[in-house]
Every structure is written in C-alpha cells, then in structure tokens.
C-alpha cells in the first residue's frame, strides 16, 4: 500500500503518522520524507505492508495531520492518461510500446493529434486516435475539441508527447498540475525560433531535455526530470535534433514512471521527487 | 544534530524514534530511512533542529530500539583521517586541498607513503608525512610501522589514496570498516596485471572508478560510490590511465563526503547510502 | 558517398587517397582516420560530395593501397538485418519502431524467437516472425533452423536483441563479425547465474550495458558501445533489471546506428568507431 | 610534432597536406579534420612522427594552402598562462596542483586576485600572486593593473578561474580568443542575481558548467566544454553551489587540457574540438 501526504510541517508529524501505522501493524517498507524548512511544508511517501483493507485510514490520517493536508492512500495502481501529439513519433511510440506490454504504469485511453500522421501507429496498438486539426477549424475550436475528448476519458494525466501547439492559459488552468510536457533544453537557453539551429551555431557540447508539469507559461512549470546527451562540432543541426529526440524519449519515460509511481509532489513552482 | 541508527527492523520503529524527537521538541529537518526486508534490518539518518544539549538521548534511543542497535548521535562533525599513498598524487592532492580550505569534512592527521615522492606536497600544506618503505624493511615491518602510526593518530578512517601495496588480512581486520579504498573499474573486469593495457586492447568505451570499504579480499568490500568516464579508440593505454585518474579523484571525493557526512551504513558486503 | 578503408599503414596513405578524391573533384565533407601504430593498421571513413557515379573507383583505390586492403564504397545505404529474440521486448520494440518509421538505418527482414511471445508485436508492425523452439527440437536442430532462415534473408547483420540462448562456435563462425549482441555489464563483473541478484547483494551503484560483436566466447567480442545508469540501495534486484533494460535499449540503439552508418571497424578483439 | 591548420576549404587540401608529409617521410599518427560546409572552412590537427627539425615546413604549408591560412607547427609544448581569481579556491587549486606536478600542459606564470584571500595557497606552490584590488582603486585602474601584469608575463592564455569581476570590452578585445572563462550553467537559464537561488526555487534536477572563450558579452563566447551533475529537491541552494563548484572544476580542467593540447579551433562564435 502506498500513502502520500503533503501538508504544513509541525513537530511530531512523522511520529504521529508512523504510530498510526504501527497501531494497525503495518510494517513500513520504505519511507521517503522531505521538509521544506523555509516554506514549512512536509512531504511523505510511505510504502507499507498491510494485510487487510482499512477504509477508515484516510480519515484517521486527516485527524492527526494539520488542516489542509492532502492524503492519497493506495492511489489507483494504474493511472489513466491521454496523450497529445503532433508529427514526431519518438515519445508516443515509446509510450505505446510500454502501454502494450503493461509496463507503463498507466493505461493510454486515447491519443489526440493535430495532424493524423501518427494515427496508424496508434491503430496498430489498438489505441483510439482522435484528429483535432488546427487548420480546418480555429484554435479555440480545436482546443475545445481536445478538451471535450479529454473530459470524456477522465484521465489522471495528460501527456504532451511533442505536442507542438501552445495551449491556452484556460486549458492549462482546467487541467492544472495534470499536464506533463517534454521539451528540449540547452545550455545556454535559446529564445525564439529554431533553437537547434541556434544551438548548432553556438557550438553547444550538450543537448538536454526537461520533463515538467505545465503551468501558465510556455515551457515553464515544475520540473520532474532532466537529462543531457553530449554532442560536438561534427553534429549538424539535424543530428542535434536526432539526439535531442533520444534524450527527450528517455527523460519523458523516466518522468512518467516517477509520476505514475506517486513519487512526485508539486508545490510553488517546483517538485519534490521521492525516489 | 545528526542521528544515525542501525538495528533489526520491527513494526513501530519510526514511530517510536520520531515520538522521542517530538517529546524533546526536536523538529525533524530530514529523515532518510531504509529497510532491508529480506535481512530484516533498519537504517535511519535523522537531521533535527535541537536547541539544547541532551546527554541522555543516546540511552533513551537504545531503550526504545531492539537489542543490538547501533546509535550515533551528533557524530563528531569533523572526522579524523590518515591517508596512505604510493607515488600517484591525484587523490592525495585533492584531499590536501579540501583539508586546507576546510571543506573536506575531516582533518588529515598525517600521510603515510611507501615512497617519499609525495612528502613535498604534504609539507607545503603543513601535513605530517611518514615514510614507511617496503624496500629497506620487510612487508611485515612496513605494515607494523604503518599500523603503529595509525594507532598513534587514532583516526576515524584510513584512506587508501592510491596505496599500491596489498595490506594483510590482519591489518584489514584491525581497522575493519574504517579503511576506504579507490580503484579503477572496467566493463568487463580485467583480472591480473596491467588492467589499463587489457582495457586498451579490448577497446573499452568506458573507464570507471569504485570507492569502497576494504574487506579481506583485495579490491572487494562494500561499494560506496562509482562513476565512469567515456573513452574511445583514440585513447592510448596511457590516456586511459589519465582519465582513470580523473574519475578516481572525483569518485573518492564523493565517497569521502558521504562517509564524513554520516550518510553511509555498512552491512553484509554492501552499503546503504542515505543522500 | 561514404568510403571506408582498412589496411596496413604506410607513409603517404592519406595523401594518396585524398589526391584520388581531388582528381575526381570529390570534395571531402568529413574524414575520420585512425592509425594503430603498434599494429601498423590504418582505418579511414570518408564522406565526399560526388556528383557522378564512378564504377572504377573501387579498383582505383585498391591500386593505391597496400595489398590486402578492404575498401567499401557507398555501402548500401540501407542495411538488411535479422533479429533474434527470446521473451524480453524492450530492445526488439525499439528496433521495430525505428524500422517502421524509417529511422533505423536498416530494414528488418524478419524476427526469429525461441519463444513465440513476441510474435504479436512483430505482426502488428508487419514484420515476419519465425518460431525456432528449443524445447520441441534439439539445440542443433533449432540452430540449424535459425541458420537456414538467416541465410534465406541474407542479412548484413544479425542482431541478438536479448536472445538468451548460447549460439554454437560454428554458428558464430559462420556469421563472423556480423552478429551484434547486447548484454548487461556490472562493476565489478559478476560471473555465473543471476548477475542482477549478485549486483544487488553487492550493492553496486551503477548498472551498465555493452553492445558488441560476437566472437567465439560468450559475451566476449569487440565492444561497439557502452553506457551506465546510476542505481542505489533502494533498488531491488527487480528494479535493477528494469533500469538495466533501459540502458540496454539505449546502448543497442546507439551501437546499431554506428554500425549501420559504417562508422565501426573491427580488428583483433576491438573496434575503431569513427563518429 | 603537432600541426594545426585553419583555412578556407577547397578540393584537394587533405591531399596536398598529406602529400607534403609523405614527401618528408613524416608518418601521420593521428589526423583530425573538420569541414564546415556552410561556411567553407577547413580545420585540421595532425600528429606526425618526424625525426628531424624542418624550419621551412611552415612556409611550405602556407604555399599549398589558400590565402589567409593560419598554420601552427609544433606549438610550444608548454603554454604560458596567467590565472585571475576572486575568492573561490576550487578551480585555482586544481590548476596549481596540476601545475606543480607537471600535468597541466601549461606553466602558471602568476595569479592575480581582486582579493588576496588566495595568496597563501599560491605562495605554498611558489607561484607569484598579485593583488589587484577593486576597492582602493577604480575599476579602470584595477583593470589597467591587471592588463599590465598580464603583458609583462606574455601568456598564451588568461584563465578566469572564478574571477567575479566583469572585464571591459576593451580588455576582452586586447586579449581576444585568449581568455578562458568557467561559469555555472542551468536548464533553464536564470538571468539576474543569485542564479543558484533561482535554480533552487525552480527545483532544477541538473547543475551544469560551461568553459568558454570570452567574447564581448558576459558569459558568452565560443564554448569549449560543458558538463552537468544531477541534483534533487534535497539540495539546498548552498548544496547546489557546492556541486556546482565540483562540476566547474572538472569542466575547466577538461577545457584547459583540450586548449593546451592544441585541439580547439575558434571561428564565428563557436569551436571545433578535435579530440
């Protein structure tokens, strides 16, 4: 059984929580805890051996925690997700393969694309694909269509697997802290069009990727995972894009595993990841 | 205040420990815990805010823990170490620099070398150097000399910073779980003489280093930290040795920081590192 | 046009080769060269801009190179491969996805499995799957069946994508330097059964993977690519296997790209990889 | 003998150069070459076995290269450098240690600090230290003092080893492409004061460092080397600074080795690094 708790910090929290576990004879297998001292916030992920169901545990925990505590017990082991894509296949295919073999930690409800290029690969894995074009309808109409499909599927998370349209603040707000995005990252950062071209012209030696929850601003929001891959002067801008895709695939996969495994807490504009 | 605990696992340990902290109004800043379920072992590192001394805390903890528990409270913030070297400077110089600038987390009591090549660099940092030659005395005599110098200095740890003599089982036993060694590592492993030559001939693409506590067998014992560095066909065996030195220096520095910061627990032939 | 050359080294080779390119007005875009001084061997990969076909170029090159030189000009841009699998999907699925989207640099002719567990995923990508069981026929019969299927497909390379049967020396000899294997790697190496269990018990901090050409000995042969991923005491043996699969997938993908792009030279028991 | 060449590209360059080597019976040990096709630029680093001096070689090479070619033959094996520092010791100490043991590939002529905190460590290694304060004289005066000391020492390179003053465009211009800087790097980049505080507040998962030649703009200029180190939510802003220092030390060391080994070419705002 996995228990995740996020609340104001106070003296004795770990004691109270673990006393409750002991009272029920739950043995604690792993306990990850973090306190943000400056913000006075407490985060805990517990994995316990429990041999019987205990429907009252949620309330028992709330009773011993400060007001406003968020508690999730035994979060549904298999999350539900909807995936948004454009043309690039790399992140989607990785998700579809893990979904098919049962190792994703989530069930893909459907895929929505603003192009229909990736419909065939979804069909091959028996995953419903919806086409929400941005050219034959307005952006508002397309987003309303996407929003409607998402709401019908009621997913835990929405994964932007290289979805290349900017979603409106309203959309992001509607699905707050439930949208996960992957994007390339550079040292230094390159603002504006064609960042791979800029990275190439600057001769960067690393290409990175960042997976993050989406906040109001484009490519901002709490970071879940990051990684880099080395490049050199022999890489063309196209080569840099290719290795960028490899690292995007790997970083998104890692971030999804952490989120689906209930290891990621979000507050302010950052995350606590209890591995 | 840092508290480290290692004992048999049982239901309610975290509760009991943290209730004791709460009773004393110690706020838990960070709590790292690990249970080895198969071995029924419990490990905890606590960092607490405590505003007054409490000399009875050690006994209070033992009272609530299973028999045989090992508890260290507020381990002396600065450890004492003795460093053994042969001819290579890279790990020693890194230790001396951090020692001089007060960032090592330990105080170097002295350096012992089976050659005197590194005496000058020690002198420049005002660190005593002892020469324990293996050519003008027997191995047993040299080891007895080393052992005697160590015992006079009463260090918490002995660091083998590229000490290229094999220490006797008796020596290792005398200073059990207090000797830290660094050595190169390869994929695959190369047994026998001149591993860098073998690595070169096999065309390995990675050179690694492993920092570990010394057990009875050479280059065996609980692993503290490991890292690798990429190489390629353009590297000569000498180039591989050079990058091997870089990664050895970095891995030993990281391992020492973890150990001196009381983050490393040892049991069976492995470690728990609570970062 | 890509040209790869492997021959005895002698003074003036680069001059002679590049003079020939200049004579034909081929501009050299990239030139990677390596000399193994001790072995007196010369390796070159040339990428040139050539606007017309030149069927005589191969002979012209042989004319200026030492006896016994191996020259490949404009190697067929798309290699043909046969993939061997057992039960694990991770490497195969990655290959099938890249094959489907045309980014593998090779065309998968068919997949052969000693179990038929992975037949369905092949079928979904329209790739022929052959079942070569080891339980209803002898090992010799199974290997003969595999060998026969391979020969019918005439592949450039055979990829062991987690094929868990040991192939006979005769088989390896028949397809010498054309079989690519991926396997987990550890620091230190663990010999014998269940290496992940051994790695877990030793508390390793890294899990690695090695892609290599197969030589006569199991898990030996010239190394093409290696990479590692960090682990810690919180990883169970099963968790280590899972991250091991991630790094195996990534390393095999990288190795295949290098090989299919004609960047890998093999000699003695090692490779030169001209990136 | 090492030869480095940078010039306009044209058909037959490699042929002409290597024919010249062959004429003199110089055997080419390693040849690294890069062509920037878009910019029509050619870069080469040659390592040759030459048994006799050849003072005319420089002119012979210029004779066969396009106008404006830059050729350096057998660049003085030991470069001369001046190091600028402020208060942080990590990069300076690493340079001093390598300088002392003869593995830096350059000789440190002197160190200049705007504070005198690091004078003692220089003195311990017998390296002259000059104090160029910014508080008892104007910035212009301090820079004039620094410039004067540099000119007296006539170094090949000036290394900013955590020099925390902004140098004037005139200064940077005077020592163009000879100033090497190291600075922290983040994904995303953080503009303004206290980037480690910003990185902490954003919850970054990586801290990086970039070594680069200094151009007119602060922290801009051709990148020589980059690397990162993982961090997590348990790192305070101070912890992030500490690991930032580790990666800065490692990246500057690598960049200096590449530069002193004549492996780095600069053009436009980027580098070619022939490893």
Automatic annotation (TrEMBL), chains A, B, C, D:
InterPro entries tied to this protein: ACT-like_dom_sf, ACT_dom, Formyl_transf_N, Formyl_transf_N_sf, PurU, PurU_ACT
Gene3D superfamilies: 3.30.70.260, Formyl transferase, N-terminal domain
Reactions accelerated catalytically: (6R)-10-formyltetrahydrofolate + H2O = (6S)-5,6,7,8-tetrahydrofolate + formate + H(+)
GO biological process, one term: one-carbon metabolic process
Domain ACT: 2-87
EC numbers on record: 3.5.1.10
Pfam families: ACT, Formyl_trans_N
Keywords of the record: Hydrolase, One-carbon metabolism, Purine biosynthesis
GO function terms (MF aspect): formyltetrahydrofolate deformylase activity
Active site: 219
Pathways per UniProt: Purine metabolism; IMP biosynthesis via de novo pathway; formate from 10-formyl-5,6,7,8-tetrahydrofolate: step 1/1
NCBIfam families with a match to the protein in the record: PRK06027.1, PurU
Role, per record: Catalyzes the hydrolysis of 10-formyltetrahydrofolate (formyl-FH4) to formate and tetrahydrofolate (FH4).
Family (UniProt): Belongs to the PurU family.
Protein name: Formyltetrahydrofolate deformylase
Organism: Mucilaginibacter limnophilus
């Amino acid at each position: 059984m996995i228990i995740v708790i996020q609340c104001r910090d106070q003296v004795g929290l770990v004691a109270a929580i673990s006393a409750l576990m002991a009272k029920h004879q739950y043995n604690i297998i792993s306990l990850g805890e973090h306190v943000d001292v400056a913000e006075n916030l407490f985060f805990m992920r517990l994995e316990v051996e429990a041999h019987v169901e205990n429907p009252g545990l949620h309330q028992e925990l709330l009773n011993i925690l400060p007001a406003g505590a968020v508690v999730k017990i035994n979060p549904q082991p298999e999350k539900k997700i909807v995936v948004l894509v454009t043309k690039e296949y790399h992140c989607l295919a990785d998700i579809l393969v893990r979904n098919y073999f049962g190792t994703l930690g989530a069930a893909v409800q459907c895929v929505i694309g603003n192009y229909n290029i990736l419909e065939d690969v979804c069909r091959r894995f028996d995953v419903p694909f919806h086409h929400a074009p941005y050219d034959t309808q307005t952006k508002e109409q397309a987003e309303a269509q996407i929003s409607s499909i998402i709401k019908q599927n009621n997913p835990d998370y929405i994964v932007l697997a290289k979805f290349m349209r900017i979603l409106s603040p309203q959309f992001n707000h509607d699905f707050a802290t439930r949208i996960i995005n992957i994007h390339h990252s550079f040292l230094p950062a390159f603002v504006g069009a064609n960042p791979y071209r800029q990275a190439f012209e600057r001769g960067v030696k690393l290409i990175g990727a960042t997976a993050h929850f989406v906040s109001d601003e484009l490519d901002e929001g709490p970071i879940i995972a990051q990684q880099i891959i080395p490049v050199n002067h022999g890489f063309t801008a196209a080569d840099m894009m290719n290795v960028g895709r490899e690292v995007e695939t790997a970083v998104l996969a890692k971030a999804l595993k952490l989120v689906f495994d209930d290891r990621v807490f979000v507050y302010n504009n950052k995350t606590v990841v209890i591995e």
